[in-house]
Amino acid sequence: MENRKTRFLPAKCNLFPLSVVLLIVALFCGGCVERQLTINTQPQEALVVLNDEEIGTSPVTVSFNWYGDYNVRISKPGYETLKTHRKLKGPWYDKFPFDFFAQLIIPKRIVDSYEWTFKLEEKKQISREQLINNAEELKNRLR
Predict the structure, then answer these.
(1) Residue 83 — very low, low, confident or very high, per pLDDT cuts 50/70/90?
(2) 67 class by beta-carbon count within 10 Å (0-12 exposed, 13-18 middle, 19+ buried)
(3) pLDDT score recorded for residue 6
(4) Per-residue pLDDT reduced to its tens digit, 120-136
(5) In whole angstroms, how far apart are CA 103 and each of 1, 52, 58, 109, 123?
(6) What pLDDT, on the 0 to 100 scale, is given for residue 126?
């Protein structure tokens, strides 16, 4: 009489495929990092352009994929256009080799958020006479 256990399971059970499957499941069950940047301006409702891409009016929050330098341009009627750059420095757990292990060890979602605030200067209105004087001065320099 044949034993049913020997028919379905081999006498020597190889644990390697099982450990590979468990490792893959552990990788996919690990946490993830969500990166967010919020840009505020004073006054609010200014148009924000980040790395030549319009992202909206302030206050605005955008997701980002990398750390480093970002070109920022902010404009609003009646205010001077602000052109600058800022640097986003990554946290310690986002550097090699910690980045791999941090996402495996911490099973929940990590939100890495930054906030930048910019103050816009009011546009200075120059008088008609000053504008004409500036034009005359420029004309004389070009001769």
Answers:
(1) very high
(2) middle
(3) 47
(4) 999 988 889 999 999 99
(5) 52, 31, 32, 9, 47
(6) 85
Model confidence at 61: pLDDT above 80: yes
Residue whose pair of structure tokens reads 């009627």 in the numeric block: 77
C-alpha distances in Å from residue 11, one per residue of 3, 43, 46, 50: 12, 75, 72, 63
Element (H, E) at 61: strand 60-63
Residue 124: name the closest of 84, 80, 82, 75 by CA.
Answer: 80
pLDDT mean over 5-27: 60
Domain boundaries, the chain: 12-142
Residue listed under structure tokens 């200067």: 121
- Token pair 């690990």 is found at 30
Tokens of 121: 């200067």
Average pLDDT over residues 57-80: 94
| Length in residues, the chain | 143
- What is the identity of the amino acid at 90? G
The secondary structure of 86-116 as a DSSP string is EEEPPPGGGSTTHHHHHHHH--SPEEEEEEE
**Which residues are registered as beta bridge partners of 42?**
119
